[in-house]
Amino acid sequence: MPGPSRRSRDTMTSVSETVVNEDDRELVALGYVPSFKREFSNLATISFAFSIMGLCSSISTTFNTPLLTGGPSSVVWCWILGACMCFTLGSSIAEIVSAFPTCGGLYSASAYLTPKKYRARVGWLVGWLNILGQIAGISSTEFGLSNMIWAAVVVGRDGDYEITQGKVVGLFAGLLVVHGLLNMLATRYLASFSKSFVFINLGATFIIIIVLLATTGRENMHPANYVFGSAGVVNQTGGWNTGLAFLFGLLSVQWTVCSLDYDATAHISEEVRRAAYAAPSAIFIAVIGTGLIGWLFNIVLVLCSGPLENLPGASGNAVLEIMYLRMGKTGALILWVFVCLTAFFVVQTALQAASRTIYAFSRDHGLPDAGYFGHNSEWTNTPLRAIALTTLVSFLPGLLDLASPIAANAMFSLCAMALDLSYIIPIFLRRVLQNHSEVMFKPGPFYMGDGLLGAVVNWICIFWTLFVVVIFSFPTVLPVTKENMNYASVITVGVMVLAFAWYIIDGHRHYRGPQSNLPPPAYTAGVAVPEINSADRDQKSKLDKEDLESAD
Q1: What is the pLDDT of residue 16?
Q2: pTM of the model
């Protein structure tokens, strides 16, 4: 294992000379020097978890898919079905995050939950799937925000405005630069900023629900059979059977609830106070809240939606058209500002989380950069290099829109597929290999146990995730052409193949799984390393020994 850098030794010395709290002792036990300031309180962490789901904005971005493939009933029933399944996934991930509260998130956990012979390969696969999914998530959300803003311009001009691909991509790029700059603030500012997100997110959602119900007369509301029954099942796919068309509605809930929140909250755990408690609790609360409130929001949108043939309207966004129909132009545009603001917060939190992933992967020498991007700025105590790289790379998927809008829309499916696959790998490993002599699983405060409850929840989320990954691989309309082909599965498999090819050619030379950056005793003469209990010390020693053996 390579020796620690001068920066790591100086950081460790500074940390050792202070009173190290329980969070940092846990981090030391996992083999890492505490490098971030823990500025995220319980409120900020919960707000972060809610905000990265971006309830009203995420539904607004993805509402067209279930409505225009399976119909109104698909919107309603696929949401609650998917939300229940996402709850099992969220609970399973919260359990792992509680046990491994590092900014590597599920990438690090996957390696810890694997026997040493396969540790590097599993960590490499999950790391790249996770990075791919998060980059796709940032791009798709920013791309959605750009379209939402231009949709508002169309409504404001009464439809007399042409949106070009160049305008969408240009605004997308500008917004991404703004988010990159904001993420370069110190952690204390990011935490303070995050505290307000949840109130705007949930506040905007409830206000839209109330105003829609207040401005839609009973005679203009759809009957229950249209909202919940067979009258609302409308296959508009051009040839897929009705059952598959109905299931396409799962994209909205999976992208909103599953594909942005879980790992993001895990990746800021080194900036969270009482991370082993706060991070999993935030995931748990946010999944339940978003699932239930989102279902209510979808029901109200369908109830007040007007004729299906008029949607998505001139703006191309069905939610904005419904608001315009019921509230008028002024009311709709005023509330749409807060929907766009919610989407802005989603990208802000998603980029923060993704930059921590790249930081952690570089820290473990998963990138061919000699740890360059695994560096924290002395000025802000945040990974400015990783933030800049994340911002730059997130711009690339947006360029797909210049080639094909359909290919650009595949980013939503790509985000769901890549992240969901990276989630279930550690859950599978935890369930199957937890008692293996070389696996390091010490349950955290959030623990469902080894009994029936934990097993059922874990296996349900694994099989469900595999099921939806298959669904998201299908193009949503027929006949399939090169313009409407769903490229998400091709890109996901392609990245996996290229990642393993890279590992065989070069990656194995510098990456051997999570690598401790704690200084050995020779570097800390006369300096006390933070104390950890004997069980944690044995765990840490075991990992270091196995890493050295792997290096040999």
Answers
A1: 37
A2: 0.84
Residue whose entry in the numeric block shows the structure tokens 């043939």 = 309
Question: In residues, how long is the chain?
Answer: 552
- pLDDT lower than 70: segments of the chain: 1-21, 258-262, 401, 403-413, 520-552
C-alpha distance from residue 245 to each of 67, 74, 308, 487 (Å): 10, 8, 16, 18
Q: Is 211 left (phi over 0), alpha (psi -120 to 50) or beta?
A: alpha
Query: What separation in angstroms does the CA of 51 have from each of 44, 178, 312, 472, 515?
Result: 10, 18, 26, 24, 32
Residue 177 CB partners (closer than 8 Å, separation 6+): 391
Segment 487-538, tens digit of pLDDT: 777 877 888 888 889 988 888 888 888 887 777 653 343 333 344 343 443 4
At CB < 8 A and 24+ separation, what contacts does 115-120 make?
115/433, 115/436, 115/438, 115/439, 116/438, 116/546, 116/547, 116/549, 116/550, 119/512, 119/513, 119/546, 119/550, 120/503, 120/508, 120/511, 120/512, 120/513, 120/550
